[in-house]
Amino acid sequence: MVTLATPPSTIDGIKRLAKAIKRESGIAHHAALEEAARKAGFQNFLHATRAITRGSDQSYTAYVTVYWNDLRSEAPSSGRYTVEVQLTRPLSELLADGPKVGGAYLRNFRLEAPDHIEMRTDASSPVSAMQYLDQASFALLFINSTGLVRVFRKENIEVMNGLERIPFADHMTGWEDPQSGDWLLLDEPYISPKPGFRKEWLQENGLHQVAPQWQGIYYPGNAVPYLISPSQALLSRIQAQVESIPDCSFPMGIPQALEYDSRFISPARAASGKPRRSRMLPTSGVSNGALAYGGAPGVRSKWRPARSMSLELHTTIGPILHKLCNSSVRTAGVTTRVYDRLNQVRSRLEDWAFMEHPGGITAEVDAKLYYGPPVDGYATPQDTLKAIEAARDVLLKGYEECKPRALLLAKIESAAADLRKKVSR
Question: Pfam families under this entry (predicted)?
Fold first, then answer.
């Protein structure tokens, strides 16, 4: 039986005691940690880490929330997870320039309150939600401990993009020191390659690499992180910093699954007295002659005219736009700019046609719409201009006045203006 002369008073001391208990009792590591924490006078290991951390360095609690909505499984489910992360700086200060500083791992989050970030969109399953939680939490801790932000300097991005394919690389993200401008690549492959791998590639590119004893960000504890940079000083500093992130900073245990419609109110939100800002949700119904469609949590709905255009007019304007988009710049004056605008109109009108006439578009009709068989383009800029004006007239006839129609007409008019300049020369 493990006996103590003096109960441990540090996290490291509790961990050493846990190892001794595990060796003697043969119990799981987590259970040994709990037992060691109780022997040290705490309720459990989580209580110990929080109590000891509060007694030493200043700690700021940040909250991370992710929703999921799983409609495809045999047993559909939805819900919310919220976890705590312990930082050495306030979350609002860490993300003063917005979640974009965390790159891909935070770009889909918003700062809902000074101490709370929330994912704008829904994860597709509980497992996916857990992965987003881990990535966001570990990204916050990485930024907090190192001071690095996602790479943003043009010259650094160009250097990274110019590197030849990195051997065995996976899940690469680019970071830089906002003060010095030094850059760093974080590579997180699933399988740890053999020692000395990439040696020749690193030498050829004037780069250095270290493998910190750290869980990484992409798939913490399952992928193997490597740091790559031309600066050895930066690598040494970042390696020491990520290896020094205390265990108590990370989210503890498996979060409780809460109702999808529940809303987390953080301490800072409650203290502000201001109502919680809701996530962007899909719009429905009709407004000013336009009908909302599509959208999802965090994804804005689109709008189309509430009153449909006849299938006859769709089969009139469709071939015109199709021929315009098959016309060349040399003979017909259809530049890339003109093509882009006309193709955007074509794509949107095709979407509307299928929504307006569900079940009414046969294969024969579809061939007469917006993406039929290959055709020859218009022969002259004058013919192109006449065709654009004809397409405009069909839109004016087919749809009543509303913002969605006005947006398409603006694109058509922009294309027509370019052609008028060419014709008038």
Answer: DUF5623
